Every structure is written in structure tokens, then in C-alpha cells.
Amino acid sequence: MATSPRSVDTISLCSTVSSCPDRNGFYGGFQRTDKPKEPLSKAQIIAREKKWLYMIDNWSFLQIRDRCRKGIPKSVRPRAWFYLSGAYLLKKKNPNIYKELLEKPGNAHIIEEIKKDKHRQFPFHEMFLDEDKVGQIELFNVLKAYSIYNPKVGFCQAQAPIAAFLLMHLPAEDAFWVFVSVCDVYLEDYFISGLEVLQNDAGILEGLLKKTCPPVYRHLQKHKVEPLLYMTDWFLCAMTRTLPWETLLRVWDCFLAEGIRVIFKVALVILGATLNRHKVRKQCNGLCETLEVLRNPPEHVLDEDFIINNMQRLNLRVEDFQIEHTRQKARRAKQKAQEATAAQNHSNTNTFSRSRGSSPTNGSNSGNITVVNVNVGDGADVDTTAPISIKNGSSNSGHRP
């Protein structure tokens, strides 16, 4: 049976690790590649680098976007990402913040979670092989600094591969500011508890799939394959744990230039190319079989040229994303209103039942129920499954707001 990319990196080291790293620093894992890169002439490399250095100093979005789609030269990529993401402005505005954040102790619980998670990121890459390697040390620093910088988010496990990925290309402080931009702008509110934005984007992806590849959309609907079952890792980790290395670099070139729409397009290409053939869909005669295929797309589907070329061929306009976003926002607002109405009706029913069943003393306090609201400070441990307490009632209601 095929092995998903995520599980590949947990296989025994002795069976998958080479004695020397590839050109990107990988000793093993699914992102290691021994395929030689098609060489460019020295004159071509210098010409591309000069174009990029000129564009960075003379910003034009349309020109930059088109160039990003062709791929950023490896030597220029760190600087280009630093500028594309707006990180250079953040660093300029906050010149000493990163060092100050590192000197702060941080939330003890979050610090412990980061320590548990740091060794799991790209374990086959030369930067992250050992705990005392500079990669794991800097990864801890970046994640800790961000958890203090944005306590609303703190730390989410899905952030770690993004931070590690950036550290492979940028100095720690620059990587931190690109990471801040990615988490707070590109993937805004993705890492907040409840994942409401991700759920909304799941609906948008489903709507766009219906437009771009109806047969695949119908297949997923038929077998009740919800988008969150296959796209959560793609979106939360911005494809860092899904795509082969060369493809990932090209996708991130576009992602930092054009934003989250690029992740949507990559997801649509993977879905369409993996399940577009009737023979494949026929073999996937259930939810589990379909998910297995989606988690292990054919190798050619994840090839950099295939992904980039088919992204650009998708018949999608910016307006299509806006229409789906508005539609999903309205749908979720309607759903919330229905849930609120149902909860209110349930509460009223409970109140009426208690009022009818109470035994007032001397005619006073007949069925009056007062919910006690408790304001909990940051960091307090709260049992959210416990029933709320009630004054003047014979017992807890068991109902949570």
C-alpha cells in the first residue's frame, strides 16, 4: 500500500537515510531528490539574478507576480521572500523586538509544547537532525518569540513546519518576520482555536471544485468526503508537508506574491488530476478509498511544472474567490443564527420545565433561575465540559451556552 508523505518521515532512519545529503540538505524522506536539476548556463543564471535584483529595487506587482510564476533564482530567493512577504517593513518598524522577545520567559505550557514538537520537523534535513543542531535551536527561538509576540494565537503544531521551512532559507530574525507575516496576514486566524476560518475556506474550496471539476466534486459529495478530511494539512501547513521540495519552492514563490489563492489552486490541481479519470473514481468506491488516493497522489501530479502550469490554466478569476467567500460567509452566518435560535429554544424549554416543576416557599422565588457568569483570566484551567452553576435552582441544568 502507498505511504503518505507524512508517514514517510516517521519510518526507521536506517532504512531510508543516505550517507550524504542531496542538494537541498535532505538525507532521506519523501522530499529528498536525487534527480539532477536541469542546468542553466552561467549567462542565464546571471541574467535572471540581475532581473530580480532590479525588480526588488523597482517594485511592480504584475511584473513580480509573473516572474514568481517562472520561479525565483535560488541565490535571490531569501531576499525576494523577505520583501514579497512584507517582512522587511515589519523588521524595519520593530528593529529590536526579536531579541527582546527571546529574553522573555514566555508561557511555560507553550514552551513545553514547543520543546516536544521541534524535533518532529523535517527530521531528515541536515539542519534538524540533532537537538543540539542550530536548526532545532533556532526553530525553538522563532516559535517561542512568536508565541509571545502574538499571545492570541500562541503556538499551534501546524506552525512548526512553516517556521522550519523558512529557517532553511533565511537567517533566524528574518525568518521570524516572514513567519509573522505568513501567520498574521497570509494565514490570518488559521491557528486560532475553533478553526472557523479553515472551515470557511473548506466551503470555498468545495465551491471552486464544483466550478473547475464537476465530476470530482460529485464523487466527493456521493461518498460524503468532507473537505476538512483531506485539505486541513494542505492549508494549515501551507503545503510544506505535502509537496516535493522543488515543487514546494515554486509554490511558495507564488504564494508569497499572490497569497492564499495559490494554496487553493494547488489543492484544486491535486484534486482534479488525482480523481479526474473515471477509472480511478470507480476504484474509489467509498470514503476511505478516496482519502487514501488523495493522500497519495501520483508522482507526476506533484511535479513542479505540472502543478505550476495547471494552476495557471484553471479558469478562475479573483471574482470567483470573492463570490465563494461571500457565499460561505452568508451560509455560516445563517447556520450560526439557526444554532443560536435552537439553543435559545432549548433554554426556554428548560426554564419552563423547571418553573412548572419547582416548589416555591411562601410564594417567593418561584422558578426564578439566574445563570452565574464567571470571567476567567488568561491561562486559567477551565473544565469546559462542566455544567454551569445556577442560583436558586435545585440542580445544575447541564446546558452549556
Automatic annotation (TrEMBL):
Protein's name according to its UniProt entry: Rab-GAP TBC domain-containing protein
GO molecular function: GTPase activator activity; small GTPase binding
Source organism of this protein record: Glossina palpalis gambiensis
Biased composition (Polar residues): 391-401
Entry-linked InterPro entries: Rab-GAP-TBC_dom (IPR000195), Rab-GAP_TBC_sf (IPR035969), Rab_GAP_TBC_domain (IPR050302)
Domain Rab-GAP TBC: 71-259
Composition skew (Low complexity), residue ranges: 353-385
Region of interest (Disordered), residue spans: 327-401
Domain of life: Eukaryota
PROSITE patterns in the cross-refs: PROKAR_LIPOPROTEIN, TBC_RABGAP
